[in-house]
Design goal:
It comes from Hydrogenovibrio marinus. The chain has 223 residues and is an alpha+beta fold. It is built from 9 helices and 7 strands.
Amino acid sequence: MSSLINDIHAEDVANYLNQNRQFFHVFPNLLDELSLPHPKTGQEISLLERQVYQLREQRDRLQVEIATLKDIAGENGKLLHNVYTLSNALLSAQTEQDAVDVVYEVMQETFQVEFVSLMSWELPNQSLKGMNQLGISQQWAETLKSTLRVGRPACGLVENEWQKGLFATSEKMESVCVIPLGNHRIWGVLALGSPVDRFKPDLGTYFLEVMGEMVTQRLQRLF
């Protein structure tokens, strides 16, 4: 008998109870005798107390998750509202110059982006203030154009030479987002710059893609 008991391991007991969920229905008195260590203090507590503790832990975790989801939903709601603002403004623009002005105004005032620049590799069919030509004679510009993909914004930290070329300023930026413009080929970019780490490489780009598509459709006729 003693050898049989010695052959029983904790895993065996756990497996048996897992496969026989009605065990304590048959022997309910055993529950009164069970005690478990408190997860933090190590003191012995009853099974009921341990269950209450676990439920509280689960509640706290759920509250954190719910708060996180609310923050995400709230932030996405603000972004969606801002995107609608840009869409409505672009649709209301009477001329291409008005559309270019809208891009700068909404990016700076609604999205509160510190540095904004519209650049094109190709010469537009009309001269517009704020639409700057980005020749590919510079090595960095060639690299930028070959790196970008249609409909795929790129965010992160770029070299100082790129920053100066895109924004025509020597002011230091901690992060930049380059939104390619064009349907089947990239004819330009909407560049956004920030003095803080705002445009991280792992930043969700869905809304940026949507904005790129809207600006592309509104200014496509220029190219």
